[in-house]
What we know:
Blueprint: H1 3-34, H2 42-52, H3 55-69, E1 74-75, H4 76-83, H5 87-100, E2 103-106, E3 119-122, H6 124-143, H7 146-165
Amino acid sequence: MNAHQSLEALKVSKASLEREYNKKYLSIELAAKKGVRIATEKWERDLKNYTLSSQKRGMFMMLLVRAAYDEVSISYKELKKSLGISEPALDTMIRDCTSYGWVVETKGAKQRKGYTNSSFQCTEEPIKQHDNYYAWLRRSHANVELKRVASAIIEVDYLIAKIEESF
């Protein structure tokens, strides 16, 4: 088999591996969107149901958890901008999540009413819920051998580059 035939065979193999990777990853994404991960504690089920109930609610909690991972608060203005939602919609999310004890507000200086000068942090429950979710995600990746397929794609890419360099 000459170099051109080898190159074409590797490109066909790479396309097949990429399709396999995409199918495997899609199965994980679908499972995540359906909320198939089992949450045994009531607080975690409630939080999971809340975050899966709408894309914006899920993003809201993710932004707060990311801020917590970075050990910072996130301002009302940052949340509003990142989510691209109206003040009443954001106010409702904040009110809901503070009433559940998932979010804590730090009021800004000279704040009369509303949340516009506040910053927010999530409590330990959303952090723990996301930690549990990411542990499930890692197990799911291992179960469908996603890393193995990704490594194969990288190796085939390397071989293609080496053959192309030889021309």
